[in-house]
Amino acid sequence: MSRRVVIDSQVFGREGGSLQGELPVVSLRRLHDLLTDTAGSLVYRIAGAIGLSNRPQLLVEVDGVLSLCCQRCLEPVEYPLELRSLLEFVDHEGDLTQDELEDDSRDFLPHAKELDVAVLIEDEILLALPSVARHANCMLPGGGQESAKVSPFSVLAGLHGKA
Question: Looking at the whole model, is its pTM more than 0.90?
Answer without folding.
Answer: no
